[in-house]
Design a protein that fits this description.
0% strand
Length: 155
Amino acid sequence: MKSLSALTDPVYVPKEKFNLFERLWLHVINDKRDLPFAYLLTTIHLIVLLPAILLFTPVFQGWIWWAVAVPYFYISQLYFKGRFGLMFHCICHRKFFKKKYQWLHTYITWIICPYSVTHRKDITVTTWACTTWKTTWTTILRARCTISAITSATS
């Protein structure tokens, strides 16, 4: 019989002290082992959400819009896609938030998902997020054209 080597997978090592940020999240989440998800959500809020909202408004025009859109696409679709997809899959199958804060799961599904990642069809929660990068950019461009048309019609 073959002898198996020792398990080398990472294991959870409990922390003795938590910082203020972690203590705030521990009031909201069910399991302290999910703190990396809290860090990921915070990072997405700080880095992805604001540019996404600004791309849908007429704040940026012409080449400046593209100068913001290209890095946004890279960060949201190529950098955060795998991380967010795994996190979202996990929190869909196991309760991430305490019952009192379960509305935050709906917020993540309907507000954060469309701006941060395209979804695979095997995720069980239905969202209005686009399914491919092509439809993501088509949607952004259509929304931008619609907003531009409305803005020019009212001026």
